Amino acid sequence: MVRLYRALILLTLIAAVVAPGPAGTAEVGVTGVRLGEHGATTRFVLDLTGRVDFRLFTLPDPYRVVIDMPALEWRPAKPPGGTTALIQGLRYGLFRPDVFRVVLDVGRPVSVRRLFFLPPADGQGPRFVLDLEPASREAFLAEKRGSLTVAALAPPALPEPSSAERDKPVVVLDPGHGGVDPGAISPGGTYEKDITLAVALEVRRQIEAMGKFRVVMTRERDVFVSLARRVETAKAARADIFISLHADAIKDKGVRGGSVYTLSEKASDALAEELAQHANASDVIAGVDFSDKSPEVANILIDLARRKALNDSADAADVVLAGLAEATSLLKTSRRHAGFAVLKGPEVPSILVELGFLSNRQDERMLGQPAHQRRLAQAVARAVDGWFGRNRR
Ligand SMILES: [Zn+2]
Fold this sequence. Notes:
This protein is of the alpha/beta class. The protein has two domains: about 30-140, Sandwich (Immunoglobulin-like), CATH 2.60.40.3500; about 150-390, Zn-dependent exopeptidases (Aminopeptidase, 3-Layer(aba) Sandwich). It has helices at about 1-20, 135-140, 165, 190-210, 225-235, 270-280, 280-285, 295-300, 305-325, 360-365, 370-390, and strands spanning about 30-40, 40-50, 55-60, 65-70, 75, 85-95, 100-105, 110-120, 125-135, 170-175, 215, 240-245, 260-265, 330-340, 350-355. The strands form three sheets. It has a six-stranded mixed sheet, with helices on both faces. A hairpin with a 4-residue loop joins strand 3 and strand 4 (about 65-70). Helix 4 crosses helix 11, helix 5 packs across helix 8 (about 295-300) and helix 9 crosses helix 11 (about 370-390). The N and C termini lie far apart (about 70 Å). Zinc ion binds near residues 176 and 248.
């Protein structure tokens, strides 16, 4: 009873803070972020230039606290150093074009003790203050906030192609990660999400220059896109081929080179398994609540790829790999299989290209070079052309 009472107070408090106040606008900036410990309480503070509306909710397994705000400008140069006993990680970035998300990784169940805005004072803007304290799992689950409607999972609205474009084969390019999910981060501070986007945009440029194909991107900017939405985009665009681009990191820093994956329920080896787990964790990292997921999306995610698409995928992977061999060094076993979620679109031939490893010094340096990005893009673009030439005549 005491617990229920406390939960009610909390919900009332949150409703009050979330109730429409001065409208949040894109002009609001975050100028500082701080973590502190006071006894059993851990305090998370955002220094703001103005008040913003926000929503806060929690997700279990792993335990996370998620704060969504309108698109805002994040000014701190880097995340606050260090962690606390409760807050073991902090990620932030655009979740959707209009939603900025902060995800706190909490190592154990927590409860929101206090949540408030400190009014502007001493030349400092308003401060967003969140106090967390340890709680039981039971209490954590009981206090779970009303879940966010994840518009990122709605079927994507794609522009109608012009009549000249309508009959062209469709290539869907999927730059891995984005927004709140940076993907791998190299020791030198390179984000995988930036590499995948840069290369994908260059692939698009080169493929469009051929004049034979229509290119659809799952994202064109630094924004989070759920794995389900990536698959749905391919479906909605009636993709003839789906190409996901990644440049992941693994524990073994000596491993370098490109590789190409097709779907398999069973990973071809430990490295393939490690990469698939990393890529599939994207939605967990971004705080997607899968309890909202429509059954249709769930089916897509668990559906096995059909045999025809699998054969086409294998064929496309071979062609892309041959192209990559001319642009970069390859992993020793460069044709691999793993259960990547984005490869599970049931009808679309789908491949996942690892452009190299951000965990490897040499690969990291090359992946950051525009000239190398162009070479990689050219390899993929030419391979696409070659694959269609063989399959669609
Ligand atoms: Zn990745």
